[in-house]
Structure formats: C-alpha cells, structure tokens
Design a protein that fits this description.
Length: about 220
C-alpha cells in the first residue's frame, strides 16, 4: 500500500467515524443535518469574529442568504433540465407515476419558494447597499457594477416571474393537481418544459452578470 492509498484510507476512516458519531444524533434526518450546518457556521463565525452588529454585516448576511436561496433555485432548475426531463423517457411507464406524484411536486415546492426567496433577499440586499434604483436602470447609462447587477437582477426577475406565473400553473395542470383535460395537460406540460428551458438559457447570462458585478471593475 503506497503513501497515497494510506493517506486516503486514513481520511476515509476519519470521515466514517465522524459520520457514525453524528448518526447517533440523527444525521440521517435532513432537518438535523441543516441544524448541524447552522451550528457549525455559527460557532466558526464566532471563533473567527466574522459576526458583528453593523449595517455592513447585515448586508453580508442577506447576500449569504441570497446565495443560499439561489443555489437551491438554480440547482433545482438544472436538476429538472439536466436530469429529470432527459431521464423521464427512459423510466418504465409503471414507475413514472412515482415521479409525477411524489418527486416532481416536492421538487417544485422547493423550486418555486427558493426562487421567491432569491428575489426577496436580492432586493433587500440591493436596498441595503444603495444600488436598488441604479441597478434597475442599468446604471443610468454608465457601464459598471450597477449595470452588471442590473442585468443580473432583471434576468432573475424574469426567471422568477416565469416560475410562478407560467411554470407552476402549467405544472399543476400537467401533474393533475388541478382539473384539466388530457389535451390541456399535454399542452401545459409542453409549456412548462419550454419555459423551464427558457429559464435555463437565461440562467447562464444571469449568473455571469451576478458574478461580474463582484469581480469585474
């Protein structure tokens, strides 16, 4: 056994011991895992002194919440488009009911509320940092950070509108959550899919400009 293999084995054993320890406190439950994560960040933030009662820190807090919400939202958007939609054609008919009745409604619940949380925290952040109106107006004709944030904000707002006003109402019909004929279900499923594809398309420039606003002068 070479040194690399020994090191890997040692690391794996340490991780396994940590998992076994946390498992005794309910790590298998999602809410416990989230509580553990919140506890870890709180303790580490206290130790490092990265918590302070200031306007700048609260702005950072909302930026962090904005990023967390965005990860959930875009992650589920990409899950639908990269995993579920391409895979559904390969799932046997007798198993598709589990996807449409269990997995998809749950994913859509977190998907739409994560979209709303991303927008709300983003707008609060823009207000706290004083660039709300300038960003909405794309920097008033001057290229720079407000322009980049403006593009990111507007693309995000369009995407969130699509989630709540197009994708979700049509998915309710397609999944049989509201009354609809077979023809209406088929049309609704196609509309929801195309809108989801449209949002995936917009997510690429949206993420570019959100990151550019923090890193491009």
């Amino acid at each position: 056994m070479n040194n690399v293999t020994q090191t890997t084995q040692t690391i794996n054993n340490a991780i396994q011991k940590a998992l076994d320890f946390l498992a005794t406190y309910g790590l298998d439950k999602l809410e416990r895992a989230l509580l553990f994560g919140a506890g870890i960040v709180f303790v580490l933030a206290l130790i490092t002194g990265s918590i302070e009662m200031s306007q700048a820190w609260f702005a950072f807090l909302f930026r962090w919440l904005h990023v967390l919400s965005g990860v959930m939202w875009i992650g589920l958007l990409w899950y639908f488009n990269f995993v579920q939609i391409p895979s559904i054609l390969n799932i046997p008919d007798e198993q598709k009911l589990a996807v449409s009745k269990v997995i998809t409604p749950t994913a859509l619940f977190w998907f739409r509320w994560a979209a709303l949380a991303t927008v709300v925290t983003g707008l609060i952040l823009a207000l706290m940092n004083g660039y709300f109106f300038s960003a909405l107006l794309f920097g008033l004709g001057t290229w720079g950070q407000p322009t980049y944030i403006g593009f990111g904000m507007w693309l995000g707002l369009i995407m969130a509108y699509n989630v709540w006003m197009i994708i979700w109402p049509n998915q309710q019909k397609a999944l049989g959550l509201v009354a609809a004929s077979d023809e209406e279900k088929k049309a609704a499923a196609r509309t929801a899919m195309l809108t989801s594809r449209f949002n995936t398309m917009l997510s690429i420039p949206m993420l570019y400009f959100m990151v550019a606003a923090q890193n491009v002068a």
